[in-house]
């Protein structure tokens, strides 16, 4: 591994600290090196705060070394004014002579303009170091800007014989989840929730399970709740209406007298491509990633219309014999892991 790759790998390690906090901004990592010695590092702050390059430059004690240093950054430095000033301006201001970049920024406000500004200022710019790894790390941001939709992760738990839920007579009369996975898998799912901007389920899942769709068994921010409720059948004391988390409901009822004041509503045409309409709306809301947790019909619709990027399937030990069949997908098996008694398979839509 080259010296540049070693320092870019460190930048990627740092970047992961922003997972779940920086969206819709990318979670970037940056490292500053002088004479083969790491003198500064940083990652993107919570949305609205300083970017990785700013934090890295600010961490350098002797600013005089910057004019003889190399900056490593996982994504092209921004060149436009947003909530913060352009990072490219700061790099030029401190006369950092060499900048190593993992991948270009696909955002139309950047898209090569950052590199051009650095080169025009006399910086030596090197592109494509650990490019594949940087693309994987920035997959949410890249998907959002290249496909104009969120990065979509499907998740479900299934029995050993392939059912997502047992027959009704095996379930409680009151609406509550029927647990297939073990405690460790539940905790893992809460970790996943903390990493994504939004979580999506259909109305049947809410009516059957009354889920909270928040983060409880992990430390982190709860995602925006997205509910597909065609006829606004969810009424009363369901957790998703408790106003504790921002909630958006997709419906065909265009009557705001039936809408709750603290909930956001999106009216769509249920006779057309529902996943496409939802993705269009979430793009408008600047939501870069969504975790879809159910139910089977909702999951299958996103699979059938080919609106998914990753699927995380947890298989428990128990068998149902009958019940609601798990969704069916064709994808590339990327990884298999044992979570105590459960098996986790992660697929990519290639």
Residues in helix, % = 25-40%
Kindly report how far apart the N and C termini lie. Answer: 28 Å
Oligomer: single chain
- Find the structural class using helix and strand composition: alpha/beta
Question: Would you report the number of β strands?
Answer: 16
Q: Rounded to an integer, what's the Rg over CA atoms?
A: 23 Å
Strand order of the largest sheet: 11-10-9-8-12-6-13-16-15
Overall morphology: elongated
If helices are DSSP runs of H or I spanning 4 or more residues, what is the number of helices?
A: 10
Beta fraction: 25-35%
Taken in chain order, the helices and strands follow as HEEHEHEHEHHEEHEHEEEHEHEEEE
Low-confidence stretches: none
Largest sheet: 9 strands, mixed
Mean pLDDT: 93
Comma- or semicolon-separated keywords:
single chain; elongated; 16 strands; 350 residues; alpha/beta; nine-stranded mixed β-sheet
Provide an overview of this structure.
- By secondary structure, the chain is α/β, with parallel strands linked by helices.
- About 25% of the residues lie in helices and about 25% in strands.
- It has ten helices and 16 strands.
- It has helices spanning about 5-15, 50-60, 85-95, 115-120, 130-135, 140-145, 185-195, 205-210, 275-285, 295-305; strands at about 30-35, 35-45, 70-75, 100-105, 125, 150-160, 165, 200, 225-230, 245-250, 265, 290-295, 310-315, 325, 330-340, 340-350.
- The protein has a nine-stranded mixed β-sheet, sandwiched between helices. A five-stranded mixed β-sheet has the order 2-1-3-4-5, sandwiched between helices. Strands 7-14 form a two-stranded antiparallel sheet.
- Helix 3 packs parallel to helix 4 (about 115-120).
């Amino acid at each position: 591994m080259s010296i540049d790759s070693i320092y870019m790998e460190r930048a990627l390690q740092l970047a992961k600290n922003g997972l779940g906090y920086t969206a819709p901004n990318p979670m970037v990592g940056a490292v500053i090196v002088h004479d083969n010695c790491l003198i500064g590092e940083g990652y993107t702050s919570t949305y609205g705060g300083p970017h990785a390059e700013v934090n890295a430059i600010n961490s350098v004690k002797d600013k005089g070394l910057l004019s003889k240093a190399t900056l490593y950054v996982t994504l092209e430095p921004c060149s436009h004014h947003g909530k913060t000033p352009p990072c490219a301006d700061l790099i030029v201001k401190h006369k950092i002579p060499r900048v190593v970049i993992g991948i270009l920024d696909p955002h139309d406000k950047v898209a090569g303009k950052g590199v051009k500004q650095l080169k025009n200022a006399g910086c030596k710019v090197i592109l494509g170091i650990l490019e594949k790894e940087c693309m994987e790390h920035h997959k949410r941001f890249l998907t959002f800007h290249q496909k104009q939709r969120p990065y979509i992760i499907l998740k479900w738990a299934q029995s050993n014989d392939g059912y997502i839920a047992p027959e009704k007579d095996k379930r409680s009369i009151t609406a509550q989840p029927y647990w297939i996975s073990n405690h460790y898998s539940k905790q893992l799912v809460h970790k996943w929730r903390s990493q994504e901007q939004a979580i999506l389920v259909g109305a049947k899942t809410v009516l059957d399970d009354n889920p909270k769709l928040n983060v409880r068994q992990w430390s982190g921010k709860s995602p925006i709740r997205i509910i597909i409720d065609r006829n606004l059948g969810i009424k009363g004391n369901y957790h998703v209406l408790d106003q504790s988390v921002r909630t958006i409901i997709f419906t065909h009822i265009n009557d705001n007298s039936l809408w709750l004041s603290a909930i956001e509503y999106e009216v769509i045409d249920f006779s057309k491509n529902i996943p496409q309409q939802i993705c269009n709306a979430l793009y408008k809301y600047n939501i870069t990633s969504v975790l879809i947790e159910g139910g089977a019909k909702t999951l299958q619709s996103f699979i059938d219309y080919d609106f998914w990027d990753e699927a995380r399937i947890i298989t428990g030990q128990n068998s149902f014999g009958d019940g609601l069949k798990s969704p069916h997908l064709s994808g590339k098996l990327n990884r298999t892991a044992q979570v105590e008694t459960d098996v986790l398979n992660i697929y990519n839509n290639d």
